[in-house]
Design brief:
By secondary structure, this protein is α/β, with parallel strands linked by helices. Helix content is 34%, strand content 21%. The chain folds into 2 domains: 261 residues, Spore Coat Polysaccharide Biosynthesis Protein SpsA, Chain A (Alpha-Beta Complex); 44 residues. A hairpin with a 2-residue loop joins β2 and β3. The termini are far apart. Bound molecules: uridine 5'-triphosphate.
């Protein structure tokens, strides 16, 4: 168990990318969901950059069938780089260069069947070994100057143990999330977690603090995952197995700074693109103009509907 004396650094992050992405079919028939673009870069690159900014040194992808494109994206591309150099496209050259994850820091393992997030994490057990690690879900984006994982690493460096990112959701939304049980005042930035429930039945949620896709966990969770017991949705749930560490190790929920985008849903994906486009100094002004035009059109349509 971690105590404040023996807080080991978080050096490794797992990116589970083996899901089927059924909510985006037919686009995801061939294209991995994690390669869908938010502004100028794919979802997976946003979260790899977040991890890099938080000090992560080793990047572990849990992949599945038809996901080879993800590995290509982070590989070295000498031909493209040479062409960009010859054409003096130095800005673009930098963009391509920044996608490369150096040799010896990029690891892949396969999840043969998408049996759930808990199972995906368990697939990476040998690559993580006996040290704390982060998990980042690529379809949850947190938009902020200081990345969500960097904020969590700060909390972890003080508290040790396990730290999960949490966000308050509307009461009726709680049944769609993993929910935290705590005795602490919910207005605090960091709360001590006393229980976790995955997708609680309506009205049975212990709070409205939901788990979003960022975790720092101790390796003992792999032992719990080993039974591969199915939970909600007949999937091996990470939440159920993390919950078994509570009471044995420090376990905290951290409210993060930033805007969360659930880019695993089509409406959330579109919202994320608008938000990242607006924040982009190169195109933000034009995006704003287009959005305002659309907003005017929506208002006009609604007025006409009201008059009819
Ligand atoms: P989701 O719950 O969004 O599932 O997974 P999904 O299969 O990607 O998408 P839908 O629901 O069919 O539209 C969240 C993240 O966890 C990964 C996914 O690739 C995604 O990045 N995941 C999920 C796995 O790696 N393995 C699994 O068994 C389940």
């Amino acid at each position: 168990m971690s105590t404040s004396q023996e807080i080991k650094p978080v050096r490794k992050a797992i990116f589970p990318v083996a899901g089927l992405g059924t909510r985006f079919l037919p686009v995801t028939k061939v294209l991995p969901k994690e390669m869908l673009p938010i502004n100028d870069r794919p979802l997976i690159q946003h979260v790899v950059e977040e991890a890099r900014d938080a000090g992560i040194e080793e990047f572990i992808f849990v992949t599945g069938r038809s996901k080879e494109m993800l590995e290509e994206h982070f590989d070295y591309q000498p031909e493209l780089m040479q062409t960009l150099k010859e054409r003096n496209k130095l800005y673009e050259l930098d963009l391509v260069r920044s996608t490369h994850i150096p040799e010896g820091r990029f690891f892949l393992t396969r999840q043969a069947k998408p049996l759930g997030l808990g199972h995906a994490i368990w697939c990476a057990r040998r690559l993580v070994g006996n040290e704390p690690f982060a998990v980042i879900l690529p379809d949850e984006l947190i938009q902020n100057d200081v990345g969500c994982l960097a904020q969590m690493v700060d909390v972890y460096n003080q508290k040790g143990g396990n730290v999960i990112a949490v966000e308050e959701v509307a009461h009726e939304e709680a049944q769609n999330y993993g929910i935290v049980d705590t005795d602490d005042d919910l207005t605090q930035k960091v709360v001590s977690v006393k229980g976790l429930v995955e997708k609680p039945a309506p009205g049975e949620q212990p709070s409205n603090l939901s788990i979003i896709g960022r975790y720092i966990l101790q390796p003992e969770v792999f032992k719990e995952l080993e039974s591969l017991e199915r939970g909600a949705g007949n999937e091996v749930q990470l939440t159920d197995n993390m919950a078994k560490l509570i009471g044995r190790q420090p376990f905290h929920g951290m409210k993060f700074k930033g805007i969360r985008h659930d880019a695993g849903r089509r409406a959330g994906f579109i919202k994320a693109n608008v938000a990242y486009g607006l924040a982009d100094p190169k195109i933000g002004g034009n995006v704003r103009k287009e959005i305002l035009k659309l907003a005017d059109k929506i208002r006009e349509d609604e007025k006409l509907k009201g008059a009819a």
